[in-house]
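Annex B, item 7. Sequence and structure tokens for protein A, then protein B.
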Amino acid sequence: MNEKGLITYAERIHLAHQHLEKVLPYSPEIGIILGTGLGGLLKDISIDMEIDYRDIPHFPVSTVESHAGKLVLGTLAHKKILAMKGRFHYYEGYSMKQVTFPVRIFKKLGIHHLFISNAAGGLHPDFELGQSMIIKDHIDLFPENPLRGANLENYGPRFPDMSDPYDEKLIDKALLFAREEGIKTSVGVYAGVQGPNLETKAEYRYLGIIGADGVGMSTVPEVIVARHMGIPVFAISAITDLCAPGKIQKVTIADVLEAAAMAEPGMTRIIKQLIGEL
């Protein structure tokens, strides 16, 4: 505890890890964060255990209707995985430390790779609705950084390098597999924004000008924390709405889920293939 008698962030991590270490029958090798409408991967997981977020000390609880709130332990492509069935977002009112809390726990539990999926708006003029975008880099436009404050020296350096946030070998393998299997995907730069509103036309133009190919409200914080701890990351977006000039239309959550369902089969196959090759 600190001088005010409050439990510190490091202590919260310890207590959550301690609880999970007692209840999990084995240590996972791979961590997976499943995004909006992309829970279909769960059908391919041989599930051994599900743990409600509410039962884990100091664990946040998802408030988004399209996100469940459970950790799933099981086997996928012959690897022991721990998947987040529902993630947390800054726009829900959580701090960045709360948003990225599960990634810290993943590291403590022993994962050595992190896979992330999300839904994103497609800024690139060539993108099609329902395709996927493999993230090769990102632009952090969030108003808060998850590493702000006292550095957790036991986890990583004060000033972590971010020149390779996404694992290039996994990206190359994913592209090769997608070409061989005829899966519609592209490689692009993801811009992370606060949300929860979608962007204006002027904001879409701005994002394109600064080099973004896709835009969403997640992923960047988790990647920063994973790379702070030296965890290799592979991330992929379902393009759920088109944001290039002349293609912008009003979008509902139902539209997002429908487009995510279109992208989901190909994304699932890519992630399974990569995990199987690790």
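Protein B:
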Amino acid sequence: MTTASLRPPATDKLLDSDAMRALALQHGRVALLAVAREALGHWRAQTPQQAFEPAPFEARCSAALQQQAAPALRPVFNLTGTVLHTNLGRAVMAPEAIAAVVAVMRGASNLEYDLAAGGRGDRDDHVDGLLKELTGAEAATAVNNNAAAVLLVLAALADRKEVPVSRGELIEIGGAFRIPDIMRRAGAKLVEVGTTNRTHLRDFEEAIGPRTALVMKVHASNYAIQGFTASVPVTELAALCKARGLPFVEDLGSGTLVDLTRWGLPAEPTPAQSISAGANVVTFSADKLLGGPQAGLIVGDKLLIQRIKKHPLKRALRLDKMTLAALEATLKLYRDPDRLAQRLPTLRLLTRTEADIRLQTERLAPALAQALGTRCQVQVLACRSQIGSGSLPVDRLPSACLAIGAAAGGNGVVKAGSKRAGSLPDRLAEAMRALPLPVIGRIEDGQLRLDLRCLDSADAEAAFAEQLPLLAQATL
């Protein structure tokens, strides 16, 4: 079929060309038939006198099949300057974690099988020992994220009872996760104590009554209150709870297992510090500062962890084998703190120096400028990265970026109704997202800025540079 005709041939004939047979072999005949029917419908919707052309029809079918085959969840370059970007997948996995996931995906595993006893096991056993070792807790368990960890702890320990929490800690994080809402869903009754900016030990003393199940402290991970403030130290709350015979629960939010000041980063409380200070249960994330897969970790007193694990919600919130494999491998890296900054991607990205990043921007700036031509101006600027995902919200890391703006003499604005309406930074951002490996930056001060903090390997830099010439074809 090589010539145009007024009407298309029968569908069987359409699918019998060399090009269509190749598409059927690659994508399957059922999928090809579906897109062929859609393409025919598109042709029929055109001018009735338009002749049927086989080549455009086959090209349309091929493009539709390629689009269907492309994964919806794709790798991207995170050049936003936010290391732990919630929308971009948070922590990057260490090679050891990736290898562990691949290994358990390929066949059966001892997920809930005790190899020594030859019988049923507990999936928590794969990380229980490591978490106890790294936090000093008596027991541990894991669920699918930290919100789930908080929900499960409250449901298991405070159902239909009261939980005093400082007003200054009634946080809301991304996705409308609010502590009051979680407490209500868990069946616990929130008792607000103190004020937004100042809460004292006496506020908790007065709030504790016969219906109190536990006292909870929540780490304000995504904001900071400054000025005339006061909060109750963990040691004092733990002592009060011990004297009143109540569990003390601390939610650390992002959570880290090591003292970050060792690498010149801002201090962040660790689960080990909370346990040492007297906390009975501590919850924290695995996919933020810890640098592992998405998970919520719960450590603390053995009897309380046993109660938590027996709650029916635990099964609904448990981890799958791939997450457990990645988590175990990540936790093992913490046994070697001297090499942690080299082996754990999150810590490696956070500790990159401004000088190293600036050298990288200077290497890449000429190639980017050449690809964009006279349409744009490319500069190397100092900037500030942020940790992200609610971690250390007021702290910034010195970095460098490629800043792309309108060329001298132009404002980069296209009038509404033009082929590409909008500002130049918006159009640049769209062109970057359309690259084979999408590039995600941030728009600031009338420029598209690409912070290279997360472009930390030679392979990643080469892959980024390799696709820059495609920008020359973009309509800006």
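Comment on protein B: The first strand starts at residue 77 and ends at 78.
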